User: Fold these one by one.
Assistant:
Number 1:
Amino acid sequence: MSIAERLPAPISRRASAGITMGPPSDNEDGGIALRPHAAASSFFRAMQLLPYRRREAMYALYDFCREVDDIADGDAPRSLKQTLLSDWRSELALLYAGRPRHAVTRRLGEAVHLYGLRCGDFLAVIDGMEMDVRTDIRAPSFALLDRYCECVAVAVGRLSVRIFGEQTPAGERVAAELGRALQLTNILRNLAEDAARHRLYLPRELLHAHSIFGTIPSWVLAHPALSDVCRDLAMLAEGHYDAAAPAIAACPRHTMRPAAVMLAVSRALLCKLLERGWRRLDEPVGIPAWHKPALLLRHGLAGR
């Protein structure tokens, strides 16, 4: 599944090749070159609502997530992927010891210092990547799926809300609820792409409830009851969106504008998925270009 487009509680793991731990950037400021396709995403529009330093911190977090994400979704052997992720654990240890070597962690250093970012949250993201690397996830239990969401979405959310300037229990609830909502929405959006990687994130209990007992992704996606399973999972996502909204409202408005925008955009995407259904998985689903600025104005700029 994806963590890059999900920020800020989640980013999109859709790269085709693994990324190695390369040398630091030659840029004078040690910065990271942001991917052109990512720069046009809803995430980057939402981040424009942040002050410069916080925005740069979010971009650095995005790049960390892309790095480990690309390893998990790459074509390298599992053993090499595990080694590369272990290298990132070592790099995080160096970061928190004040000696980062990689361009990404060098850029994260200031954010860690300014916003109190916790090493455990970064390590949790790697835990989630390792779940994908160890074995192809197929029809996980609700408990395992929730653990996966906690790692690849909620942990990123906790890092994000701290960068936004929110360290209260309400901010933690935003990360927990919005992270799960965004991750479940991504699961529903990326069924075909995940199946191509031999992965199936639909929970076992929902499949069994609709008399689907296989776990081969292509077979499940062709099952007549797939739409019923997906509608049930969409309702679970809606419940998390419903819980995230009051948590966002309980925080100072200026800190949570990016989260409010991401909630609005992703919830609109879930509505589009429900309208399309799950019979035509090759039919792309997105938010019309004209609708995104309206959501930004409504949820991000009002009351500035």
Number 2:
Amino acid sequence: MNKPNPQADVQKAQRALAPSPAPQAPGVRATARRAGMRKRHWAVLLSFVATVLLPLVIFGIYLWGVAEDRYASTVGFIVRQEEGQSGSELLGGLSALTGGTSSVDGDVLYEFIRSQDLVRRIDDRLQLRDYYSSFWRTDPLFALWPDATIEDMLWYWGRVVRVSYNQSTGLTELRIQAFDPQMAQAIAVEVVGESQAVVNALNEQARADAIRYADLELTEAENRLRSARAALTEFRIRTQIVDLEADIQARMGVVSNLQQRLATELVAFDELSTTTNRDDPRVGQAERRIQVIRDRISDERRTFATTEVLGTGEDYPTLMSEFEGLSVERAFAEEAFRAALAARDAARADAVRQSRYLATYVSPTLAESPGFPQRFVLLALAALFSCLVWSISVLVYYSIRDKA
């Protein structure tokens, strides 16, 4: 015999009293059931928590609870060049040897600040390796590992030293980070000092090059002048004529005297012709004298142009052409020597003063409050990167699964 079940009787009564569902019109779809979380939804949510939220929480705890505060020292400088014209600039051409533009010097300093040589020098003075690695146990993410090599030091130098260089203006600004403000300022001071040493070295090299080139030009000009004078002296010894121009003037003086004598005889002949007859013996004598003088003038001119100078085997026109060439070469050599001597003196005058120098427009600052690490910025960047990686990974996964 079955026992009565009051709960079952109540459920039957409720079903009997419940209104029957309204008949559905033809062509109308049934109402969708209420959506709910499925396994794939829970998997996506768990992956978001595991790859985004949990790392961000851990990273935030590290930033605010573990990471050491860092201080920044800022310094700004520019390579300046003395204004105004120097002696080498007035001569033209030597200014390119005695100094370059500030833009080129700024490029050199920019590469030097990021070089291994500078890191080694400052490490020898301030023991950078020991200083930055001393925080390895407390802040391994932002400190240097203890057994770092010089290449590792150079990589870490790029993290703690930010160089901002404007090539158009030549302005260079440095921001150096350290775990205490005094060390950051000390590193900035050392960087400025080493940069000044590089500029001084560039100056010394430019000066040495300018003086060396000026001395070479002066030596070449001196040798050229010596050769021109030696050639002229050899010409005088060979021809046994000390001054060819004076000798030619003496020869031409004979012709000049004969021409004056000829003019006098012609005048006398004209006077005689007007006062005597044609058959006068004096007229014949005057004509013979005139003809003799003309013949002598002609002989002198012919012998001057064709007669061989004794002991030379050459005539006067050939010797004159050679002498004029040697004289012109000596004159050019003397002018070149004077110009080279003035250029050498100008180069030495430029060398006594500093043509380029490092002008600091922002002295190394001493921080009063830590500026790094920028915790909110780093956390925001980490969140953005994590979200991008997570979303791309989910899209790739479902794309591959749907195609499978």
Number 3:
Amino acid sequence: MENVTLSSKQQARVEIISRVESGRLSKQEAAQLLGVSRRQVDNILRRFREEGVRSVVHGNTGRTPVHKTRPETVETILRLAGEGGPYHDLSVPHLRLYLAREHGISITRPTLDRLLRTHGVRLTRRRRRTIPRKRRQRSPAEGMLVLIDASPHAWLEDRGPRLTLIGAVDNATGKVLYLSFQLTENLHGYLRLLRSLLLEHGLPIALYHDRHTIFRSPKEATVEDQLDGRAPRSQFGLVLDLLGIESIAAHSPQAKGRIERLWGILQDRLVKELRLAGITTLEEANAFLTEFIRRHNAEFAIPPADPNPAWTQLERGMDLDYYLSERQTRVVRPDHTISWMGDCIQLLHLRGHAVRPGAKVTVHRTIDDTVLVYHGKTRLPYKTLDSGPAKAHAASKPQVVKQIPPRDRQKRRRQCAWLHSGVG
């Protein structure tokens, strides 16, 4: 006779069925107690008469589940994700992607998380208390609002220099529109970002950013600015004004939480992927970003509520160098020259366009450090004049400070006192 071990729930089920068989309990009452229909009670009774107590034991009891993770697969995962393994500090979702892409191991996220915790490879983290904030609604269409920011971080860990990652995220879809490594956060980095957006997508309606001086000028408004109703603008702010892009400054990091959360993801995932790829230089890191952005958007980007994008296409033949550059104003001298960064620039004649002495021109330094001169939006030809031998000799000749004898200094003081006394 076979011994059958029953759980407390199964024992209670046998007791109910036995009472129905002996007539001490009706089938309707048994159906309510067992949580089944009246018809199912008949099937349970039939199986109980045929198989006895074993009928209440599920048929899969004691069998190995068909979807159970194979022992050799578990061993591989623990070797890769355990201490000393290449994926020892990857998060569970990131580890799952790497196992599928690099090793062909398909495993669900809950199963992988449970497996790692069971073997002590991952510990439960306590969540920090957060201040409740109101969630910002997404823009309905792509291109309505683009968030831009920079994140200085040890992206290459100790394998290379400390870099700054500049990025742009679409508010409607969460899609990463641009990422680029550079040494520091500066104006030309954001101009490159803007140029990429214009060429690949078009003009966005608004840019959302922090209150860095690159975006907002710290200068006080002059009397002329106040009379004209203008606020001091940074170089990047002038570019946005010329392009007709609205500039919105956030009052806190939480206000631009979508791109701040992106930095959290990238400082976790991208750092580890750069390490696994063996990347050690700025150039290699930038080349790696193209494929990384594609994979990131495939996993995290969502479709917009409005499928019609809000990007404005550029005009044909638009001179981007005029807009995407650092500019300074100069006044044309009587000999049609201007001074810029210690150089003398001779403006050349342009057919059909005359520039008179006293006129204002702007000198533009582009992203690739090319110097251009504009009168309005017209680009002017020019040449840089040599300093000349006399000027070079004067610059190289040491300055001699003439010493005034003490007696002459006293005489000069008396003369100055007499001149400022108002006498005579």
Number 4:
Amino acid sequence: MLTSILQTIKKFIPKPLFDALAPSYHYSLAFFGALIYRFPSKHLTVIAVTGTKGKSSTVEMLNAIFEAAGKKTAMLGTIRFKIGEHSRPNTFKMTVPGRFFIQKFLRQAVNAHCDVAILELSSEAAKQFRHKFVYLDALVFTNLSPEHIESHGSFEKYREAKLALTETLKKNFKKRSVIVANIDDKESKAFLNSGAREQFPFSIKDAGLYDIKPDGISFTFRNTRITSPLRGMFNIYNCLGAATCAEAFGISVTDIKTGLENLSIIKGRVEFVKLGQDFDVVVDYAHTSGSLTELYKTFDKQKKICVLGNTGGGRDKWKRPEMARVADTFCDEIILTNEDPYDENPSGILEDMLPGFKLHAPTIIMDRREAIGEALKRAKTGDAVLITGKGTDPFIMIAHNKKIRWSDYDVAKEELEKILK
């Protein structure tokens, strides 16, 4: 209700005036949210994860590790919200729904006597000051590549928004002030030098002799071999980030191993749909050229039938042909389909992708269910059907801020059941 009122008011305010007032408006909401809920982040350990890729997976890994160590956890991220034993899907189509929401969540975590709250924080959240008055003990930086450029104005401003998340680490609000950063990423130096009192870099070199196999990954951490059913090089990085952070907070390598090895699935992240078929069906959130590349490389030994689209609403139009180029390079068959058009013409979004195709002529099927069904019909023994762009997103967003309830996983399962029958 409040959102609708604010959207209506926004229509009548000249954009230059709105842009000038927005920072004060967002800051005020953040302050009053923290005030009403009595600054809850002061009363428990708060660990945040940021970056372009791997945030949700790293949050889930940290949660699994701390639980293995006997800690009571709270978790807020793109996939779900969790306090203790109670978990529910995030159906808001945003990582951090709002300033009041995050403060209320943290207060509930305190009231539930949680030991640690693990938060996924995005650049959009920072841009709108949703992170203000959330006092961090630690921040994990995964990586940084171009995304949300049109929203932020430039890659530099996007990076600044991410770096803004480090501000509480240098103001000594908490006993700990920890930055954990992937030093294989060229932007890590800025995060390590952001003012945190304790720096914990990690690198693929920390994984020792790692293995990436069709049925999972294995690597060495502090002379201990860890095996996980999760897939891909990117998940070795995510595991290393989570393990390095957990170790900084006194979690033993034994508990790190137990937590990571017990985490067999992350919803919407290389999530397999298995009904006994002789080919792979995978749902993944990959929505950038980099994340698509990493996903496709993970299935490099298989014929890949790829279903993808792009988001509308003016969001990063530049990446449409880039993602198409990645699909053109790695996929054997390509089906373009509707994703989240918002107020844009869905067909126009796919037309923006077409210049990226040089090797393949993609099939265009606007109906997403029909597109998924067609991909499954084409699959033969040993193939991989890769359905990307939405992951656990619960809606397809269409014009006039309307939405259609959706689940790539459920639709893929339903269409697969039809074929197997």
